[in-house]
Amino acid sequence: MERLIVTYRLSCEADESPRQKALDIAYEQTVELPEQAVSPELAERIVGRIEELSPLSGDRHKLVISYCLDAVGDELTQCLNLLFGNISLKAGIRIDAIEWPARLLQAFGGPAHGIAGLRELLNVPSGPLLCSALKPMGLSAQALGDYCAAFARGGVHIIKDDHGLANQPDAPFQERLERCQEAVASVNARSGGNSLYFPNVTAGYSELPKRLDAAKRAGCRGVLINAWVTGLDALRYIRDEFGFAIMAHPALTGAYFQPAHGIAPQLVLGDLFRLAGADASIYPNSGGRFGFTVETCEAINDALRRDLPGIKPALPTPGGGMDVRRAPDWVRRYGPDTIVLIGGSLYRQGDLEAASRQLAEAIAQV
Amino acid sequence: MERLIVTYRLSCEADESPRQKALDIAYEQTVELPEQAVSPELAERIVGRIEELSPLSGDRHKLVISYCLDAVGDELTQCLNLLFGNISLKAGIRIDAIEWPARLLQAFGGPAHGIAGLRELLNVPSGPLLCSALKPMGLSAQALGDYCAAFARGGVHIIKDDHGLANQPDAPFQERLERCQEAVASVNARSGGNSLYFPNVTAGYSELPKRLDAAKRAGCRGVLINAWVTGLDALRYIRDEFGFAIMAHPALTGAYFQPAHGIAPQLVLGDLFRLAGADASIYPNSGGRFGFTVETCEAINDALRRDLPGIKPALPTPGGGMDVRRAPDWVRRYGPDTIVLIGGSLYRQGDLEAASRQLAEAIAQV
After folding, report:
1. pLDDT exceeds cutoff 90 at B288
2. CB contacts < 8 Å between A and B, how many?
3. Chain B residue at shortest CA distance from A200
4. Is 90 exceeded by the pLDDT of residue A82?
5. Interface of B with A in 40-69 (CB under 8 A)
6. What is the pLDDT of residue A290?
7. In this complex, do A229 and B229 lie within 8 Å of one another by their Cβ atoms?
8. Hey, of A94, A160, A167, A229, which one would you mutate to test binding to chain B, going by the most B CBs within 10 A of its CB?
9. Rounded CA gap, B366 and B356, in Å?
10. Residue among B261, B337, B265, B336 nearest B294 (CA)
11. Average pLDDT for residues B141-164, to the nearest whole number?
12. Phi, psi (5° rounding) for residue A139?
């Protein structure tokens, strides 16, 4: 029988027994009852099974628990809960690795487009892809549409809304959608290019389907979403009901990336985003405004692109303060199946079209 | 003009300037551009305004930023993003307090039922309320239904699914819903009591409306949901589209409750859960299996019950390993507008009906 296998790194206080902490996790995440209140049959079948518990350096221990799939069912929501629901409220527990059974891979499904599919939509069969963001909030829809046109003329492949552009009065969603999609379509028509505009559809439950309908009607092929804000399953919903290419933004996820407590970034922004349906996953690149190491970034890249039976690979999308001058180096390091996301470093140059063209040429030569 | 006022506690590294860190937050959470790329008009109007920056003890600083509501719009999703979206990926930033402008209070709306409304549904006009959880996963729907009946006979007011019961094969949602709702209705009919069964409706976007429809058809009056797993706005959706009383579970939220980085528990499980529509908010009580101090619990209680213009108060629901023997003390401490959530300590006693009755009598006498 297939099982879900989770590797944790425990950090134990002086008065904490690693064995007891391991048992607590196995019970807390399943039956949520003390051992003495659980029948031997359920203790054997449903409670997580400790497969390994071994000391690492210092106060740390490696713990491997396997879970019967009867504890998950087939739903992403309950899977998230089983992985880190209640233990998020404890301390010193970090999920370092997950081995996905085929049944859950199939149930969650992964990207609809994947790397090859998104390349086809963009008509860019090989080489690095370039993305930029429309901002800042406070501008009108018309001004953002003008930026969109400039990026498209400069050869940016994907032009996305900044993830903080929602439905504020300066550039309401519907108006921004129309201006930006018209702008990009008009440039494409003249240039023969194939840039795509991805509106930010992040919204509440009642509003999200309306935003997606509107994006469909406007002719968009992909969308941006703050996946942890909406709940991760929104990706599956968008994939299954609307068929858009999906670029997922990591807003709100950072709290899980604590050194001693949480979930490893490559599992959230790699495995989970990909399995839920992200075709591209944005993460804060090393050397920018955020603190990821290059090793973390490469672990995310690997999680997005590695072989998983029946699951298409997704595109790493490093961003968050990357300098245009360093972009070619990052492409060399991360490989061509990467979307380079650069915003501020283009805006700082003033002429968006010229700055974009120069960047597009620089990374195409890598 | 009303503004959203957020108080942060910064923890600064030796090489970090508190003033620069404050400015970074003000820009990161709004325009997401470097200062030199933002026009003076937008810097003044849209970028967060630093209202106070003052040293606390050690490496800590108090920071107050006010935000123009044009940066939020009226949506809970963008509000969450503005509060902690990108800065979740940084370090040493903790939100300690939020002052809510009337416009956002009105836009989010808060509980539909609140304390008085939930008491009316339960026909318990005063005194502490008692809740227990159906578990463990692995039992059949029939077995869980039998537990439900025993709790109802014992006088438990709200009998909820354990938050890990989703749609697993041992007790699929629909079957469990029917068995448990029938069980509680049948006991109520015989006893003249008014216990309510709250099924756990946590599910993905396509499935959630079906679960809610089913719960409505079965005659349920309230539901349980893992609000951070589904995305917080699910509460508003359930409130507005289905009218259920909502009990919100804190699964996955714990990662935000780090000492130096995150969001204070009373803001997530108090303010945010309440504003999104929770009539009752479950949190891990002090002295149980989790690490909240009694001060944190009281801060959550206060956030749920305090006066907020136009927003009904919600019921604190301390749980997570509370011992029946200590329950009266907690009621005395937290006051009668509290739902005491006790599971394991009843299951350990074997006879659920007798154990529940004894507990119900003990807390009624406080």
Report:
1. no
2. 278
3. B78
4. yes
5. 41-42, 45-46
6. 82
7. no
8. A229
9. 16
10. B265
11. 98
12. -75, 160
Comparing CA positions, the residue from A200, A213, A3, A236 lying closest to residue A99 is A3
Question: Residue B25: its chain A contacts at CB < 8 A?
Answer: none
Confidence at B289, pLDDT banded by 50, 70, 90: confident
- What is this structure's pTM? 0.98
Instruction: Decide if pLDDT at B149 tops 90.
Output: yes
Calpha distance B334→B297 (Å, rounded): 9
Strand ordering across the sheet containing A315-319: A222-226, A245-249, A280-284, A315-319
Q: How far apart (Å, rounded) are the C-alpha atoms in residues B201 and A103?
A: 22
Looking at chain A from residue 150 to 179, which residues have their Cβ under 8 Å from any Cβ of chain B? 162-164, 166-170
Across the interface, whether the CB atoms of A78 and B24 are under 8 A apart is answered no
What's the pLDDT score for residue A291? 84
173-212 of B, contacting A, C-beta below 8 A: 202-208
Q: CA-to-CA distance for B1 and B7, rounded, in angstroms? A: 19
The full 3-state SS of chain A, as one line of letters, equals: CCEEEEEEEEECCCCCCHHHHHHHHHHHCCCCCCHHHCCHHHHHHCCCEEEEEEECCCCEEEEEEEEEHHHCCCCHHHHHHHHHCHHHHCCCEEEEEEECCHHHHHHHCCCCCHHHHHHHHHCCCCCCEEEEEECCECECHHHHHHHHHHHHHCCCCEEEECCCCCCCCCCCHHHHHHHHHHHHHHHHHHHCCCCEEECECCCCCCCHHHHHHHHHHHCCCEEEEEHHHHCCCHHHHHHHHHCCEEEEECCCHHHHECCCCEECHHHHHHHHHHHHCCCEEEEECCCCCCCCCHHHHHHHHHHHHCCECCECCCEEEEECCCCHHHHHHHHHHHCCCCEEECCHHHHCCCCHHHHHHHHHHHHHCC
Q: Is the CB of residue B34 less than 8 Å away from at least one CB of chain A? A: yes
Chain B nearest-CA distance from A95, in A, is 12
Mean pLDDT within B93-118: 98
How confident is the model at residue B223, as a pLDDT?
99
| Cα(B249)–Cα(B202) distance, integer angstroms | 10
Cβ–Cβ contact A38 with B under 8 A: yes
